[in-house]
Design brief:
Layout (H helix, E strand, L loop, with lengths): L1 E8 L6 E3 L3 H15 L1 H9 L2 E2 L4 E2 L2 E3 L7 E4 L2 E4 L3 E8 L9 H5 L3 E5 L4 E12 L7 E6 L6 E2 L8 E2 L7 H17 L11 E4 L4 E7 L7 E7 L1 E5 L2 H10 L12 E3 L2
Antiparallel strand pairs: 1-8, 1-10, 2-7, 3-4, 5-8, 6-7, 9-10, 11-17, 11-18, 12-13, 14-17, 15-16
Helix pairs in contact: 1-2, 4-5
């Protein structure tokens, strides 16, 4: 279940937002869901789907799609009257009946103490799902984050897609999400599982809770890639995001072929 939201600027004089806006968008999505089903929103935020060790929110969103913009330092200057964003959820009976209506006509402010912009959702368009196959090509429309924790190291390492363990961790993350959602281990698969990068790779560091004592920096990478593997895992990644921290705006993709 994917939607394209059109966000109209309410005040034409407000046009600057921080480049690190992902946390605010994530919090807004939780708030919108909470207005329709507070119990589901609280569960999604506090627990989510879980396997033995990890929790997954099982939704993601794209970078803001801004037709006319200028980057100046850590600010985005919006030259367009409206911007767009893709919001993607794993299709589930518990939410499909009310999500689309919840977002329509919502208003929210995005930004920090230095600059903010008020938006109104003027359009909510459902996106038809593609046909899923065991070989597809995607483009990351928000950075993909893969990390690795090593014994004796306090912090996880954020891996670039040329790291030798990247493909294994990429598919392992999908299988962990599968177990969290279904309650079962993913069945043994004898076919090939592979990720091939077919475009230049762009590194992106995103500050979460910027300017607060809880500030942290997450690092992901954007690229086009060919994925070979089980079609049902590819479908899971398309709707929930590939890699980690999806509910913070990482791992959203679109189909290239």
């Amino acid at each position: 279940m994917r939607f394209q939201l059109t966000l109209q600027r309410i005040n034409s004089q407000e046009r600057i937002i921080p480049i690190n806006y992902q946390y605010e968008v994530s919090a807004w999505i939780y708030r919108v869901i909470g207005q329709g089903d507070p119990a589901f929103s609280a569960w999604l935020h506090e627990q989510g789907y879980a396997d033995d060790k990890k929790q997954f929110r099982l939704f993601t969103f794209s970078n803001l799609i801004i037709p006319n913009r200028t980057i100046r330092g850590d600010r985005i200057i919006i030259g367009s009257d409206a911007v767009r964003i893709i919001v993607s959820f794993l299709p589930h009976e518990a939410i499909t009946h009310f999500i689309q209506g919840l977002f329509r006509n919502q208003e929210f402010r995005m930004g920090d103490r230095q600059s903010q912009v008020s938006f109104r959702v003027t359009s909510v368009e459902g996106q038809p799902g593609p046909s899923f196959h065991d070989r597809m090509i995607f483009r990351a429309i928000s950075p993909i984050l893969i990390s690795q924790s090593l014994p004796g190291e306090k912090y996880a390492r954020y891996l670039a897609p040329d790291h030798p363990d990247y493909t294994h961790l990429f598919f392992n993350n999908l299988k962990e999400k599968w177990k969290a959602f279904t309650g079962k281990d993913y069945p043994s698969y004898s076919g090939r599982e592979d990720i091939s990068i077919i475009s230049p790779v762009r590194k992106k560091g995103i500050l979460i809770k910027a300017g607060t004592p809880m500030e942290s920096k997450l690092i992901g990478y954007s690229f086009d890639f060919r994925i070979t593997g089980p079609a049902d895992l590819i479908r899971l990644g398309y709707y929930t995001g590939f890699g980690e921290k999806n509910s913070m705006g990482f791992g959203c993709v679109e189909v290239v072929i």
